[in-house]
C-alpha cells in the first residue's frame, strides 16, 4: 500500500494557522498592538483604511529589531518570549507563540520597517504570501512600523465572509479599547481613512477611561480597590443608574490582558443585586493582578479565556469588593436602625449659633389663693333626662346651626340657616344575581387584558389573543418606514433642547444615520464630538425615552448595520419600533385596547412582527369544547 500521509507545505500550514489567529482585520490590529506593547513602546499609532481590509498599519517607538530578528520574526513558532515549556506558566508578555506575524504574512502583503536604538541603519522587509520579495537597509527612526495590506488577497472565500465596513470598524475599535485601557501609560493614536478617531495621551486609568468614552463618564465611575494574598483588584464600576440593556462597557483585565469570563461577570452582577432592574447590565473596568503561576492562558486561540487555580475564592473576593465599594460611596442603600433622627440638625439651622432660652415667671401666681368649686363650674349643654334618641337625628335633613341652641332648631326643622344641607342614604337590601357587570362597548366589542401582556378579543367562533408589544411594534414599524421613505414625518418642538452625551464613535454613528432620523421626526440642532443637541422629536415618543431609544439604536448599528439603501432604513425602523413599542406590564384601558387592534389590522402585514414573530393567535370554540370532554 502506498504512503498517503505527507507533510504540508509551509505556506499551506501558515494559511491553516491564519484561520485560528486572523479571523478578521481586528485580529491583525490586536496582534500588532500587543507586539508594540511587548517592545516597550511609549507611543503607538494605528492607521486603518477601509475598515482594515485595505491597510492596517501600526507604528511604535519601541526597541525595534535587528536584521536577523526582522527576518526570523516571520517564521513559524519564532519568539523571544519563551525558551522552555515552564515559561508558559510564568508569562508577563502578550504574544508568546510566535504565530502571529507568520500567519498574517501568509494571507496579506506585509511591509516591515524597523531599527534598534544602537543601530545606525534599519531594515526594510517586504513579504507577499509568506514569500520574502525584498530585504534592504533603510533609514528609518527607532522602533517598528508594520503595514498589512490587502488582507485575504489570496483567500477570496475568507474575504467574502467579512462583514460591512462599519461592523469591521467596530471590531477594530473594540480591540483598540482593550489594549489602550490596559496600558494607560502608553500614548495611543488611531486614524481611519485619514480622519482622527482617537488621540489618547499618556495618563492614569481613570483619565484613560474618560478620554475614550467621553467626559461625562467621570461622574459615572465608582472606584474599586482591594488587595489580598491571592489577588489585587483595582478599577471602576459604573453607578447603577447608568446601567444599560447592552453589554458594552464591560472590561476584565488579568495581568494587563483582556479576558472574557461569564463566571466573574456573574460575581459583579450579583454585587449589584437589588440596585438595578432585571433587564439591564452593569458597566465596569476591573484590573485583576494574580500570580502568573496560578493561571493558564494558553487554553484558547485568541487568549481571551484563561483558567484560574482557585476560581471560587476570586469570585467571592470580587463580589465582596464591588459590593463594599458601592456601599462605601453611598451608592447602595444602608439601613441604620440605631441612629436617632431626632439628633439630626435641620439644614436651615446648620449655620446658626444656639441662643440661651428665656424664662418668664408670673410673680402673682398662687395656687392656694382661690379654690375652684365644683358648683361654680358651668357646663355649656344641659342634658335633659327625658331626651329620646329620636332627637339626635332632628335637623339632619335641613341642616342646623351650631351657634343656636339645639331646642330652637328642633322646634322648626325646616329652617335653613345657610349651611349646605345633606341627606342620608340608606343601603338597599335588594340583592342582584349578577356577579360581574355586563357592560358592552358602544361598538358591541368586548376586550380584556390578560397579565398586562395579552389582549383577548372574542370572535364569532372563538377568541383572538394579541401580544400587545409585538402588535405595537408592527404598527410603529410600518409608520416609521413610511415616514423615512416618504419624508413626511411630524415633529414636536421642545421648549428646552435636549443635551445628550455620547462617545465620539457613537456620535459618528448618529451622524451617518442623521438624515433617516430626521425623516422620522428628529431635529438635530447640533452634533459635536461628544454632544448631541436635539430640538425636536417625533410625536410618537416621549421626551424621557429619547436617550434609551438612541442608545439602543447605536447598539443595533454596532452589531450589524447594512451599507445603505432600503436595508438600512428597514433596520432603523425595526430598532426604533422595538424601543418605542408598549412594553409588557403596561395597563391599557378599553379605548386603548380597541384602538391597538384596529391599527394592527390596518397594517399590511398584521400577522407577524418586524422580527417575524407571530403577533396573535386564535382559539376556536371546538378547541375549547375538547378541553371539557
Automatic annotation (TrEMBL):
A GO biological-process term: mismatch repair
InterPro entries, A to Z: DNA_mismatch_repair_CS, DNA_mismatch_repair_MutL, DNA_mismatch_S5_2-like, HATPase_C_sf, MutL/Mlh/PMS, MutL/Mlh/Pms-like, MutL_C, MutL_C_dimsub
First and last residue of the signal peptide: none
Domain MutL C-terminal dimerisation: 446-588
SMART domains per the UniProt record, alphabetical: DNA_mis_repair (SM01340), MutL_C (SM00853)
The entry's keywords: DNA damage, DNA repair, Endonuclease, Hydrolase, Nuclease
SUPFAM superfamilies the record matches: ATPase domain of HSP90 chaperone/DNA topoisomerase II/histidine kinase, DNA mismatch repair protein MutL, Ribosomal protein S5 domain 2-like
PROSITE patterns per record: DNA_MISMATCH_REPAIR_1
Gene Ontology MF annotations: ATP binding; ATP hydrolysis activity; ATP-dependent DNA damage sensor activity; endonuclease activity; mismatched DNA binding
KW DNA repair (keyword) present: yes
GO cellular component: mismatch repair complex
Pfam assignment, any one: MutL_C
Domain DNA mismatch repair protein S5: 209-327
HAMAP family cross-referenced by the UniProt entry: DNA_mis_repair (MF_00149)
Role of this protein: This protein is involved in the repair of mismatches in DNA. It is required for dam-dependent methyl-directed DNA mismatch repair. May act as a 'molecular matchmaker', a protein that promotes the formation of a stable complex between two or more DNA-binding proteins in an ATP-dependent manner without itself being part of a final effector complex.
Similarity comment text for this entry: Belongs to the DNA mismatch repair MutL/HexB family.
The protein, known as: DNA mismatch repair protein MutL
Originating organism: Aequorivita vitellina
